[in-house]
Amino acid sequence: MTPLLSLQSVSKRFRGLVAVDAVSFDVAPGELFAIIGPNGAGKTTLFNMIAGAIAPDQGLINFAGESIGGLPPDTVCRRGIGRTFQIVRPFPALSVEDNVVIGALLHSRDVVRARESTRDLLRRLDLFGQRHRIAGTLTLPDRKRLEVARALATEPKLLLLDEVMAGLRPTESDRMVAILRALNREEELTIVLIEHVMRAVMALASSVLVLDHGIAIAQGQPEAIVRDPAVVQSYLGANLVERI
Amino acid sequence: MAAETVTKTTAHRADRLARLAASVFGDVSPRAMILLGVLLAVLLMAPWLVNDYLLTILIVVLYFAFTGQAWNIMMGFAGQLSLGHAIYAGIGGYIAAVLFARFGIAPWLGLLAAMPIAAVCGAIIGFLAFRFRVAGVYFAILTIAFAEFARIGFDHMDFVNASAGLFLPVTQYAHNDLWHLRGNPTMFYYVILAAAAFVFVLCRTLLKSRIGYCWLAIREDEQAARAVGIDSFRYKMAAVMISAAITSFAGVFYAFFYNNLFPEQVFNISRSIEMILGPIIGGIGTLFGPILGAFVLTGLAEGLNTALVGLGFDLPGAKQVFYGVCLLLVVIALPDGVWPWLARLIGLQERSQ
Amino acid sequence: MTQLISVWLNVTVAGILTGLVYGLMALGLSVIFGVVRVVNFAHGEMMSIAMYLTVLLFSSLSLDPLVMLVPIAAVLFVFGYALQAGLINPFITRPEHSQFLLLVALALIIVNSLLIIFGPDARTVQTAYVFDSFEVGALIVDATKLYAGAAAIVVAALLFVFFRFAPLGKAIRACADNYTGALVVGLDVKRLYALTFGLGAACVGAAGVMMTLIVDVTPMIGPTYTLLGFVIVITGGLGSMAGALIGGLLIGVTEALAGLLFTPSAKSMFAFAILVLVLLFRPQGILGRRTI
User: Fold this and answer.
1) With a cut of 70, which residues of chain A have pLDDT below it?
2) Which of B208, B220, B232 sits opposite A93 (nearest CB)?
3) Which of A6, B129, B226, C149 could cross-link with A74 by S-S, CB 3.0 to 4.6 Å?
4) What is the rounded CA–CA span in Å between residue A96 and residue A90?
5) What is the pTM of this model?
6) Predicted confidence band of residue C290 (pLDDT cuts 50, 70, 90)
């Protein structure tokens, strides 16, 4: 099966620092793919290259058979990739509903139709009751779900989630996991997520990539990854592995 | 059979109009509608209620309400601070004036030439700024540079009579010639009132449409807007061009009302600053802000002037000092402008605040 | 032929000397931006305050501008310090266009207050040596411009020395380089900001005093110099002191030559053309750091 997303030997350096060094991986359609690794490993840089926020120095990024490396973020979104940010960025002065409507405008002819199409999405993300609240006044978990809703409103085929569980309590994190699992199952949404919360990674991912200092040090199924000595050494720590 | 189709089409059209009106004004609270209605009624009757001097002041107020709203599209909706907006008014005024003075072409036709040219000028500035990532304060400085360039350029352009000034032929003040914009102040009053009202409805329509939502998204967070598929370059360009084109009408009005144009005055940075005072003091990004700002500012300034004259002082520049003080106070104490604070007070709120 | 060269030479030298004064003015603007990160839209207006003070003191006390250099610079220092401490420091967390507009307001107030107080007519400072000149071969240099240029070099040199060697100067540079780091080390950043603004204001005050030897003073001169200051500082590089001086020289010379080649009144068009080009192609300027 042709992968939905394919990175081949992608590299990025910032002046003297190599942030991402010849990373390659494939994501199959409908897969739940996690990228883990210590801070500064280059995970968000990788996302930024896929999403078009920065251009790769070397390597190819293919999405649905077409090369997207170096394309601007709005073009990448129109091709079918949605993303969230490591530090949540909803439109603070606008209402919850308006935030999602803006995402929906990508595929809706006018505002009225866009508004209608967001009803289901808001309900799905447990935001319907708060749809008239101003985004800047929401709690962190709500803002995170709002950002996911806004990205989903653009009807992506692939969703990039950057540490969407960070700062959430276990119950909220479980809620988010349930939502993501449902989306993956029902809408066949392919999800690539950067995560530190191993609980969520183990619960969600079918495939894991481990990044350290810009290099892919391990890739495979979650159960195998957590036992990989290199991964344990660089990131997980022996204690955590025992608990899992 | 034919009659049926006709009634169906008219009914269909009426229905569409009603729906458009509903979408534009649908979620305006009854209170706001009433206040709007009262304001409009008072303004419509103004020529019968006030003397000529006050009428001229109202014309100035509405002029600034008009330009303020036009500027607000660029700043309040799309987030780009322009301090050289006088260039668009100047271009509009000069084009229409030259066409009328030299070729007898009516200002409304002259407007058809002025608006696209002003839009192109805006497009050039916008393109240079957005392509080369000139933003924030640097964008403001860029706009100032362009306006100054125009000022000095026109000051040396013999085609428009350079610094000696361009004068429009005035044949009579007695009867009103709307087509050629020749007539008494009352005619000009209604023209600028209609224009200000038109821009108000336009802004409201834009805000509630797709382009308005995209503008707000860009204003709030351009990177996040791009991440949801908004081509920010295109929408910023649209804001600049629309704002420029609308402002050019103000220039046409100015030219035909005052009947003379001097580059030193028309393109002066003071004109640009005057244009932004209303919206900043009233409230950037809001619909009523520029209008309220224009009323408050000009009203108070004229009041101050009258008081000073009454006390025997003739201080050229006192008005500008007053403007400066108002701006200072608003920036310090009411950064969102007077309108949001006032709206909260009387229970009206705008969605885009 | 030699006549032509002589004209060009004289104009260029005059441009260099004027450019030195421009450079000093821009130095103040650059220092303020480099450290406090505030774009001082009232810079030229502050200079015009200094110019009017000079004119006033000259006409009432017959004191030579160069003698009044230090006291007037001191007055501007206090003004700048008070401005930063009172109006800008309290609102340091506001978005940048807020501070910008604050200074726009101030500029408006200053220009028109000067207009009210002094009227629109031009004032000049007619010193004893106003018509003197020095001749070196084909070169004829106005005494006023020479003194102004020399004074500018001296003040700029003092400023360089201050920032390089004085503990206070180094502390200020630390704030510019790393705001949080400076706080952590215990520097009173707000006070240092106020000091810096005061220094920048003193610079522009000194430049203003010197400028009275070269041009006539009108209220509208303020905005003109503010814009010129921006052009110079952006061309030379925001935050770079050497850049400000180099930018000043560049603008001084191009202005003078443009005045020679085209009509004198159109010479500022060149300054703006340069500004646009720099903003587009090298926004960090000649010597600036790419923090923009």
Assistant:
1) 237-244
2) B220
3) B226
4) 9
5) 0.85
6) very low
**Using the beta-carbon criterion (under 8 Å), do B213 and A93 form an inter-chain contact?**
no
> Hey, what are C218's tokens?
């009108």
C124: which 2 tokens? 């000049």
Task: With a cut of 90, say whether residue B253 has pLDDT above it.
Answer: yes
Q: Name the percent of chain C lying above pLDDT 70.
A: 97
In a domain, A52, yes or no: yes
- Residue B155, CA distances (Å) to A78, B263, B277, C225, C262 in order: 48, 5, 26, 19, 14
Q: Is residue A184 part of a domain?
A: yes
- Cβ-proximal residues to B215 (8 Å cutoff; 6+ apart), any chain: B77, B78, B206, B207, B235, B239
Q: Are C211 and C229 in contact (CB under 8 A)?
A: no
Q: Are residues A208 and A185 in the same domain?
A: yes
Among chain B residues, CA nearest to C234: B138
Say what the ipTM of the complex is.
0.90
Assign domain C2-281 to its CATH architecture: Orthogonal Bundle (1.10)
The architecture that CATH gives domain B29-346 is Orthogonal Bundle (1.10)
Mean pLDDT, rounded, for B16-38: 70
Does A85 reside within a domain?
A: no
B210 reaches A (C-beta below 8 A) = yes
* Distance of alpha carbon A56 from the chain centroid: 18
Confidence of residue C167 (pLDDT cuts 50, 70, 90): confident
Length of chain B: 353
Q: Hey, is B284 helix, strand or coil? A: coil
Interface touch A85/B224, C-beta < 8 Å:
yes
User: Which residue range(s) make up the domain with A10?
Assistant: 5-80+157-243
Map residue C258 onto helix, strand or coil. helix
Minimum distance, in Å, between the CA of residue B109 and any CA atom of chain C: 32
Domain boundaries along the sequence of chain C:
2-281
- Domain count within chain A: 2
**Cβ–Cβ of B226/A78 closer than 8 Å?**
no
Closest partner CB to B325 (pick from C109, C231, C263) = C109
Task: Please name which of C90, C103, C98 lies closest in space to residue C46, comparing C-alpha atoms.
Answer: C103
Nearest to C227 among B81, B144, B155 (CB): B144
Quick one: A71 and A167 in the same domain?
A: yes
Chains B, C: CB pairs < 8 Å = 110
